[in-house]
Amino acid sequence: MEVHAIKTRKFLPPKDNLWDLLSSIKSLKENSVVVITSKVVAIGEGECIEISKISKDDLIISEADKYLSRSDTPGGLIMYTLKNNMLVASSGIDESNGAGYYILWPKNPNKSAKKIWQYLKDKFNLKNLGIIITDSRLIPLRQGVVGYSIGYFGFKPIKDYRGKEDIFGRKFEMETSNIPDSLASAAVIEMGEGSECKPLAIISEILDIEFISKEFKPQKGDFGFDIDEKKDVFYPFLSSVKWKKGGSGKNR
After folding, report:
1. Distance from C-alpha of 170 to C-alpha of 192, rounded to nearest angstrom
2. pLDDT at position 251, please?
3. What is the dihedral of CA 222, 227, 231, 237, to 10 degrees?
4. How far apart, in whole angstroms, are the C-alpha atoms of residue 97 and residue 162?
5. Helix, strand, coil shares of the chain as percentages rounded to 5?
6. What is the pLDDT of residues 14-39, one digit of tens each?
7. Spatial distance between the Cα atoms of 197 and 105, rounded to a whole number of angstroms
8. What parts of the chain have a pLDDT lower than 70?
9. pLDDT tens for residues 151-185?
10. Which 8-state DSSP code applies to residue 6?
11. pLDDT at res. 125
């Protein structure tokens, strides 16, 4: 697998031209995945709010499906939130590289990914192409952030090992592999988290990825990508705190 991050011009809040930024991609091979930071997608869609207009905590609450108060976090550094069936810090809202604006997530990351997929697929006349929109998150009991996917399109997100044999002939019963988050993490380490100005990356030579030209919908017997909260193996932790209901984007 090869990962190539692309340096671009500064992308300016509160709104900039995403399609112009994508012109930084000069060529694309068949069977590639293009990785794009959620920040530039959000700026392209105008999902920015002036810092002077609202307090960050009020904005976080309005964007969250569920949230925990800042007092529930060690040192009050962040607010824990559940948004789009993901556990994220502060509803994904960011101030870094924001030039005086809070930058939100795209309204519908998968829909945004599909639009970018269609644009690049047509521009480069490709049959197979994947798109991943990324953000960064913390992992419990580990220092530092890693990249993950908040939206994707163009490929099946799960590699299913069930029924296949391990190296000793034992059949897997539950094993699956998370493709979007794995690729996002590999790309984000090349794209950087600071002033690198590399919001795009191209991943090529990917083994064992199945490209599709429609929204992924699990068939009978398949695992879906999202897991119902109460069926998740982490539900004992998620349910051990008193979540409060957020506004789910009421300020948009």
Report:
1. 40
2. 60
3. 150
4. 43
5. 25, 25, 45
6. 999 999 999 999 999 999 999 999 99
7. 19
8. 251-252
9. 999 999 999 998 999 999 999 988 999 999 999 99
10. E
11. 98
Greatest Cα pair distance, the chain, in angstroms, is: 61
Q: What is the pTM for the complete model shown?
A: 0.96
Per-residue pLDDT at 41:
98
* Sign for the pseudo-dihedral over CA of 229, 55, 58, 112: negative
34-56 burial, b for 16+ CB within 10 Å, e for fewer? Answer: bbbbbbbbbbbbebbbeeeeeeb
- Among 114, 153, 126, which residue's Cα sits nearest to residue 27? 126
What structural domains does the chain harbor?
1-46+105-220 (3.30.1330.100), 48-104 (no CATH)
Give 233: exposed, middle or buried? Use CB within 10 Å, 0-12, 13-18, 19+. Answer: exposed
Backbone angles phi, psi at 197, to 5 degrees: 60, 45
